Amino acid sequence: MAKYRVLALVTYLMDLEKKIAFTKDISQQDSSRLSTEINGASPPSRFSSQNLTLFYNRVPKTGSTSFVGLAYDLCSKNKFKVLHVNVSKNAHTMSLSDQLRFARNLSHWDLKQPSFYHGHVAYLDFAKFGSLSPLFINLIRQPLDRMVSYYYFLRYGDDFRPHLIRKKQGNKTSFDDCVKDGQAECDPNNLWLQVPFFCGHHADCWTPGNTWALEQAKNNLVKSYLLVGVTEQMEEFVAVLEATIPNLFKGALKLYRQGSKSHLRKTNRKLPLKAETIAHFRNSTVWQLENEFYEFALRQFEYVKSRTLKPDLSDKGQQFFYEKIRPK
Fold first, then answer.
1. Is the pTM higher than 0.90?
2. Active-site annotation, residues
3. How far apart are CA 141 and CA 137, in angstroms?
């Protein structure tokens, strides 16, 4: 009987030792994972070329159709998926439930990676929903130029779909006359679009002239966007992306320079503005805040470009290295 008791005790102690070792191993893994999260880094597999997810939450009338055309031409060759996010009724914000669905879906749709998502959707904070954030990119345009382009686009269409009837077709009122007559369509408050697109889904983001929204937009641009370019320098924007994410954009600059994709959607007719029209907008708070955001983004893009590209827009390559490695 004593022999069986000793055997049972030995077996128990062996099992206990295994459980302690297993628990210690799990604890070490959790500790390592926690340390990684605290230091702001993520496991390498999350950012491998196979798991890369890019989200271009494109601002309307900034040349986005031309840029997206490059992605569609490159996706088969460079082996990535392109997906258009179509929000019902052309809304630029999502309901809370749709935000959650989209964040969870985009973060876990492994069969569609590497991937390039695009759509006219305001910035979305994925961390708020417990999801990994994609790499955000965007293009913005001088605010008054963007508004004027959209005004004439609604009347004359573009060369992308020249036979499509636009909702203002037949209305030949110039933008200058629209402003002079005080029509609602030309109200300076309608400039308020690029700031809220970067600000996000908070109600105050969409209040024209809100200074908090401007600061939030700047903060998101710096902290959450891999790259924000300007329409006026789209070629340089393409070059920086190719240098930074070659597994998606290899060959993009050459394709852009061929001309077939550099002006894919050009408004058919656009009249130059009178000086008094320009002065009218520049006196408005909304223009001043939108222009401040544009200038802020432009300065950052110019800085990024100077650090990334040579004068001919080729990649400068890696500019750091390791040394004094010990022990040898």
1. no
2. 118, 120
3. 14
